[in-house]
Amino acid sequence: MMLYDLPAPAKLNLFLHVIGRRGDGYHLLQSAFRLISLADSLDIDLRHDGVIGRETDMPGVAHDDDLVVRAARLLQQSTGSHFGAQIHVRKRIPAGGGLGGGSSDAATVLIALNKLWKTQLNRTELMQIGLKLGADVPFFIFGQNAFAEGVGEALQAIDLESQYFVVVQPAQQVPTQGIFQDPDLTRDTKSVRIMDFSRGSGIGSADGSKGLFGHNDLQPVVLKHYPVVRQAFDWCQRSGLNVRMTGSGSCLFAVFLQQDQAALAYEKTLAKMRSEFSEDLAAGAQSPIKQLFICDGLSEHPLRNWL
C-alpha cells in the first residue's frame, strides 16, 4: 500500500516574542503560527520488513539524522509496530528559512504512518511523540493556526482572516541554535494574552507587515550577524515590500489582505529583482535574494481530518 502526494505545508510566525528562559536553557516563547500553501510533498510506501528507508538525498543530512526517518522510527518504538516504510520527499520549502519544512515533513510522516500502520494514536498522543523531535512538530500535527506559548508546544487554536503572502528566501541560511544562544538576543519581552493578539492582528496597511501585531525578537540578531539576510531585508524595504522575518530566519514575508495585491507585489518585486540582479541571478552569485514565493494562508492542515 502506498500514500501519494501527502502535503507538508510551511508555517509563518506572524510574531515571535522571547519572554524568558527556563533553567534547562530552553527559551520561553509566544508566537502566532500561520499555515501557508507553500508545501513539500511526500510519497510513503508500506514495508513489511520493518525497515525505514529514505529515497531522497538531503544535502548535508545523513540518512539516520533526517527528521522523516527519525519520526518513523520513533513511531515504531512508541507503538511496537513491526511495519516499515519507504519515504520519498519532494522539497519545495527552503531549508534553514524558519518555515518549519523539516518539522512539517516529520509531522506528515507521523500522521500518514499512524494511518498506514493502523497504530490508532489520537492527536494528543501523536503530538507528544512529535515534541520529542522538535518544538514545531506538534503544531503541524495540531493542524490549526495557533497561538503558541511555552517552548512552542502549548497551542491554542485561533481563527485568522484570509491573508496572502509574498515570501522571500535570502541567499543565506541561518542555524536556529546559534541565534537562540546569541548574547545579543533579548529575552525579556513582556508577555501578551491571546486576546491582545486577536485585537491587534489586523493589517494596518495593504502593502505588507507594517500593521502586524508585535515583532520578531530574533530578527535584529539575524540582521546583525548575517549580512546577506540584511541586504535582502533592506532591498525589500527599499523596493516597497514591507517584510518581517519568520522564525529564526532567514526567510522574510510580506502579508496582504487581497490576493490581487499580493500577486501585483510579487510580480513587481520579481521584475525589479531580475532587472537589478539579472547577471548575478544567471551566475548564481551576489544577489541577496535566492527565490520568491507567493502563497495563501491556510485555515487548517490538509491532513487534519486524518486524526
User: How many independent structural domains?
Assistant: 2
Classification by helices and strands:
alpha+beta
Number of strands: 10
Order of helices and strands: EEEHEHHHEEEHHHHEEHE
Under CATH, the topology of the largest domain is which?
Answer: Ribosomal Protein S5, domain 2
Binding site for ATP: 94-104
Catalytic activity: 4-CDP-2-C-methyl-D-erythritol + ATP = 4-CDP-2-C-methyl-D-erythritol 2-phosphate + ADP + H(+)
Active site: 11, 136
Domain GHMP kinase C-terminal: 212-268
Describe this structure as you would to a colleague.
It is built from 9 helices and 10 strands. The protein is of the alpha+beta class. Helix 1 runs parallel beside helix 2 and helix 7 (219-225) crosses helix 8. Strands 1, 2, 3, 4, 5 and 6 form a 6-stranded mixed β-sheet that branches. The protein is 33% helix and 26% strand. The protein folds into 2 domains: 2-158, 2-Layer Sandwich (Ribosomal Protein S5, domain 2), CATH 3.30.230.10; 164-296, Alpha-Beta Plaits (2-Layer Sandwich). The longest helix has 25 residues, at 259-283. The radius of gyration is 19 Å and the shape is globular. Residues 203-210 have low confidence and may be disordered. It comes from Sheuella amnicola. GO terms for molecular function: 4-(cytidine 5'-diphospho)-2-C-methyl-D-erythritol kinase activity; ATP binding. It holds the Pfam family GHMP_kinases_N. Catalyzes the phosphorylation of the position 2 hydroxy group of 4-diphosphocytidyl-2C-methyl-D-erythritol.
